[in-house]
Write a structure and sequence with these properties.
With 451 residues, the chain is mainly α. The protein contains 16 helices and no strands. It has a single domain, classed as MFS general substrate transporter like domains (Growth Hormone, Chain: A, Up-down Bundle), CATH 1.20.1250. Helices cover 76% and strands 0% of the residues. The protein is globular. Its main location: membrane.
């Protein structure tokens, strides 16, 4: 079996005044530092492609529903990839799994580059389905990579540094979501889709080098292989882990009901105005909230009631999502000015308030992510971390795909403002019920981690 897990180290009294992020994981583990830097740089490129694909599909189809299908089509393959990727991470050398999945993702980006150059040469006549195919392959590879990379951290860091490492990952994600969408909006508007995808392919190199620099990470003990038995064992462990399971459910609710990004192309083109630049700004606002929360995450080592921290932050997330929906609704009903602003005109008041709301979603989601991730990594044994990370990755990557379908469908059937306004209120209500019913999760103590 794997080594026993340990509780996070309690911070020394002299550390309690720390406000800025704790960078001890970067100093203590060169392997973590290289992996973190590489993932940060390559993640910026991944965000370039994610935003550009949405903009290009909307440019081809003028349909928010068509944009939402990017996530909907890849949902089932991602679920399978997350579960299978977690099994692979527990059965084989995790470094090797990372190398193969990263190369697969890079090849799918090359496919998007080819499509974009063909469209440019052919005067805009390119079918949409190849974009769905390549983005699905990319999503599958990213799911396996994310599940495996997260399960690596407890092998290269002490247990007491996992919470600060999660906060550092939040900074990386904030940088990715701040720079990636903002740069994507500018690149698409100035150089086109082909060069935007090409930049992603070039930035991939940094992430690949970070993976190559890892030591071999073979399983620590006896494994049950990479078959159905291993997956069943992982699912059976999750059934016996009510705290981890509650964290998964809360995140699934937040992502499935409160991800408004799929409607941003329509908001930028038809409501607030500004087109791709507005899309980049609003997406970057969410990332700024994530980044600032991680930057001032020093106090996370002093928090012990993880369940309350997760629940409270996600309820706040729902409130910010509802606020964004109300802003869009106010624009569509004429409260903030002329409805149907075109690309050349931006309603600054609406843009600012919407940006603040999305920054709030990024900040509150990051608080939840830090404690959910740390709870899972400290409460589960190493031999189960890959499979749990696989299931967790299905939740954190599959949930937004469900959210894309939810937002795109209701926005098409009702109005752009309706799904975020409704979804935000449903999140607040549902999480409140979970905190009331799940006493063990509500009273979770990091000094005595229990799955």
């Amino acid at each position: 079996m794997s080594e026993p897990t340990s509780a996070p180290e309690l911070p020394a009294p002299t550390d309690r005044r720390r406000r800025l992020v704790d960078i001890t994981p970067l100093r203590r583990s060169p392997a973590f530092a290289r992996l973190w830097i590489g993932a940060t740089v390559s993640g910026v490129g991944a965000q370039l492609t994610l935003v550009a694909v949405g903009l290009q599909i909307y440019d081809i189809t003028r349909s928010t529903l068509a944009v939402s299908l990017v996530g909907g089509i890849s949902l089932v393959p991602m679920v399978i990839a997350g579960l299978w990727g977690g099994v692979l991470a527990d059965a084989f050398d995790r470094r090797l799994v990372l190398i193969i999945s990263a190369i697969t993702g890079w090849l799918s980006t090359l496919g998007l580059i080819t499509l974009a150059w063909i469209e440019l040469a052919d005067g805009g006549h390119v079918p949409v389905w190849p974009f769905y195919a390549f983005t699905t392959i990319n999503a599958v590879a990213a799911t396996i990579t994310q599940a495996t990379r997260s399960s690596v951290y407890p092998r290269i860091l002490p247990a007491g540094l996992l919470a600060p490492a999660s906060a550092l990952n939040g900074i990386a994600f904030g940088i990715q979501l701040t720079l990636g969408p903002a740069v994507a909006g500018v690149l698409v508007a100035t150089t086109g889709f082909a060069w935007t995808y090409t930049v992603d392919a070039l930035l991939f190199t940094a992430g690949f080098l970070g993976i190559l620099s890892l030591p071999k990470l073979a399983p620590l003990g006896e494994t049950s292989g990479a078959g159905w038995r291993s997956l069943r064992d992982g699912l059976a462990f999750l059934v016996r882990a009510p705290n981890i399971r509650a964290g998964f459910l809360i995140d699934l609710l937040a992502m499935g009901l409160g991800r408004p990004f799929v409607i941003l192309p329509a908001v930028g083109a038809l409501v607030i105005g500004g087109g791709p630049v507005t899309v980049g700004i609003l997406t970057a606002c969410a990332a700024t909230g994530t980044f600032l929360t991680s930057l001032f995450s020093g106090p996370v080592r002093h928090v012990r009631r993880y369940g309350l921290a997760i629940g409270g932050s996600v309820m706040l997330y729902g409130g910010f999502v509802a606020l964004f929906g109300l802003v869009v609704g106010a624009m569509q009903t004429g409260w903030f000015g002329r409805v149907g602003a075109d690309i050349a005109h931006v309603n600054v008041v609406a843009l600012v308030i919407a940006g603040v709301a999305l920054a709030g979603t990024g900040a509150s989601d990051e608080v939840s992510a830090i404690f959910r991730t740390t709870m899972m990594l400290t409460a589960a044994p190493d031999g189960m971390r890959g499979r749990l990370q696989g299931i967790f990755t299905v939740v954190v990557t599959g949930g937004p795909r469900i959210g894309d379908l939810y937002m795109g469908t209701l926005a098409t059937l009702v109005a752009l403002w309706f799904p975020p306004a409704l979804g935000g209120l449903l999140i607040v209500a549902a999480v409140g019920v979970i905190l009331r019913v799940q006493r063990g999760f509500r009273e979770y103590d990091a000094a005595d981690p229990s799955p």
